[in-house]
Amino acid sequence: KNPGAGAIYRTMDPSQAGAVLQGALKEVPFAVGVNNHMGSAVTPDEAIMKEVLTIIKDRGLFFVDSLTIGSSVGGEVASEIHLPFEARDVFLDNEQTYPYIVGQLEQLVAASKRHGKAIGICHPHPVTAQVLARELPKLKDRGIAVVRVSSLVRNRI
């Protein structure tokens, strides 16, 4: 798939990847963290990941790995360079149907109860927004607090 302008590709050398990231960070000057959205081809590449994660660390940001592939080295490299890091637990809307997203939200709740926290990732699809608007307020009654991912990552520093 073509992710569009500003993507980092596995065919880039690490310095090219770093330059792309630097440009992206200039576009979002108030970012507090970085997440790979479609990183399955790049996240197993240790050289590229070391370059981009070092840039992220040098800017005082954190990294959340979407874990789009099991062979990602994001966590290992982040640990090596002491970069605040987390990984997603559940994708909420790989399928864009109300029942599917509700089911994924239930998996996220179960993961949060097992581990004390959980990170869900989703897209700004209309059905996702509908599910979240209706279901998130109910979580408080179940003892679940919805927080910014930055609070989960920053607690690991």
Write a structural description.
- The chain is mainly α and 157 residues long.
- The chain contains six helices and five strands.
- It has helices at 14-27, 46-58, 74-81, 98-115, 126-139, 149-154; strands at 33-35, 62-65, 85-87, 90-91, 120-121.
- The strands form two sheets. It has a three-stranded parallel beta sheet with strand order 1-2-3. A two-stranded parallel sheet has the order 4-5.
- Helix 2 (46-58) links the parallel strand 1 and strand 2.
- It is globular and about 45 Å long.
- The chain starts with 13 loop residues before the first helix and ends with a helix.
- The relative contact order is 0.12.
- The mean pLDDT is 93.
The total strand number stands at 5
Strand content: 5-15%
Helical segment count: 6
Q: Give Rg in angstroms.
A: 16 Å
Q: Flag low-confidence runs.
A: none
Overall pLDDT: 93
- Helix fraction, binned, reads 40-55%
Q: Supply the helix-strand structural class.
A: mainly alpha
Secondary-structure element order, N to C: HEHEHEEHEHH
Distance between the termini: 35 Å
Strand order of the largest sheet: 1-2-3
CA-based shape: globular
Sheet with the most strands, sense and barrel status: 3 strands, parallel
Topology:
Layout (H helix, E strand, L loop, with lengths): L13 H14 L5 E3 L10 H13 L3 E4 L8 H8 L3 E3 L2 E2 L6 H18 L4 E2 L4 H14 L9 H6 L3
Parallel strand pairs: 1-2, 2-3, 4-5
Overview features:
single chain; 157 residues; mainly alpha; 3-stranded parallel β-sheet; two-stranded parallel ribbon; 6 helices; 46% helix; globular
